[in-house]
Predict the 3D structure of the following.
Amino acid sequence: MTGLSADPLDLGAVVAAVGDAEHGGTASFLGCIRREAALREVIAIEYQAYEELTVRELAAIADEATRRFGATVAAVHRTGRVEVGEPSVAVACSTPHRPAAFAACRYVIDELKARAPIWKRLIYADGVAEWVDGRDAVRDERPA
């Protein structure tokens, strides 16, 4: 299960999509809209995507995670307006063991952010809105 959705995301459905009686580990990630960006109050984000290419890229990323980690993968990203506190992306990966599930989940969200042609327009409380490249925010935040 990979793709785009104009409807609110259901993490339970994404996790259920990777259920496998042979897999003992499931990891999930839910990315939600935060209230602040660049020291400004955000009220919502509007997402647009090059749908055909995004769907193809998400499927390729899922295939890569399957080959690399033995994972069953589900990843869905919102389009349209998403309010503060609402999820904009949901990823779940199941594998036979826990370490690979975590690694696969991180791989999928990092690759999705880096490769999927999805654009976001931040809408600020002061009425200003601006397009930003979500790939600019991709960085390794693991402790040294």
Remarks:
- Residues 51-69 form the longest helix (19 residues).
